[in-house]
Amino acid sequence: MIRSPPQWSDPRYTMIRNKTLLITLATCSLVAAGETRGADAIINAADFATLQEAADAIPRSGGVLKIPPGTYELSQPLHLKTADTRLEGSGTATHLINKNTEGKPAILIEHPDWIGKQVPSKDRLWRVNLANFRVTGNEKSGAGIEARYIEEIFVQGVTSSDNGGDGLRLHYCYEDPRVSDCLFTYNKKCGVSIEGCHDIIVSANQFEENDDGLRCIDSFNLTMSGNNLDDHLGDGVVIENTYGSVVAGNMIEECQGWAIVLDRDCYGITMSANVIAHEFTGGIDLRDAHGCAISANTFTIVKKVGVAVREGSGSITISANNFSDSWIGDADDGTPIKKRDSVVSKTETNPNEAAGILLQDCQALVISGNLFSGLSGDAVRQLGDCRKVLINGNGSQEFEVD
What we know:
This is Pectate lyase superfamily protein. InterPro entries: Beta_helix, PbH1, Pectin_lyas_fold, Pectin_lyase_fold/virulence, SCF-Subunits/Alg-Epimerases. GO terms for molecular function: lyase activity. Residues 179-323 form the Right handed beta helix domain. One of its GO terms (biological process) is ubiquitin-dependent protein catabolic process. The protein is mainly beta. It has two domains: 38-233, Single-stranded right-handed beta-helix, Pectin lyase-like (Pectate Lyase C-like, 3 Solenoid); 238-402, no CATH class. Helices cover 8% and strands 44% of the residues. It has a 25-stranded parallel sheet that branches. The protein has a twelve-stranded parallel sheet with strand order 4-7-10-13-16-19-22-25-28-31-34-37. Strands 8-11 form a two-stranded parallel sheet.
């Protein structure tokens, strides 16, 4: 049986009209509330006289600030002060140059009501994202990027170089900061400085010739993996007063200081599967560390000390690591090959110097399953009163060149 369609006066149409009216009113109220429509939240910096004017145009509910290719000189910090905001460039073609000589950063991310305050309220800005641009400074400028009390900050694909301060400074960005696929080079302080943060990801970045590569202080749960650190004037990675962290799968080479330093009550940290190569002072220095594991790392031509366990440290496991010089074996025809790096230079009287483990007034250690090959000194050297040390199942190999 074919039913005839209901008339407009039918009660069923009345119900449909009412629902449609409610949906329409709800949609209109969202738009009228302001700052939620996509077109309003996308800001093109080219439409404004200055970058700061463009940043100020971001609605309170957040948005995207797009900076087209070009060179932009800053005499004062570009201040981002809205949550749910993305600052997006066009790769390194978008170049922000910090001309400030009073120690101020090129970019400052901070709540507008908290400027200069040390301990702001708990109502912080959330979810700020920086991506795809280049920022540089000068010897008297501050950090390339400084973020203060920003939760869930995400920095990706950014180049920060030649700044008088840090390449990136995260100050009490407590909840889930992430830094990935960035380049930090030639900064007078750290490539990345982290203070008072929690559940931190630092992954797939490159660090070149900063003072220190990365410093993580007064924090929790750092995951640092897949990074490349080279030629630092100080140390590669410095971790202080931090626990429950992992430093794994990184390449750390030619630091003038140490590859990794743990200090000020660090505990529960694993350092594993890193290649630590050609460090001029040493590999890993446990100055004040407890309950930590050093495993499956390669220490090649590391000068003076491969791993140091100091007086303030204990409950340490050092296992399955390789400590070696640059011996590369025999040629296919059986002719012995000299070590790869044997030419004396002004900076290295012994290019093939390779060191083992130093224990200094420490306690409660297990050293097992390591291989020591071609070292300049002892595999394990003990100074002072070292107690409760188990050394077992390690191997050594020496090669001679005819």
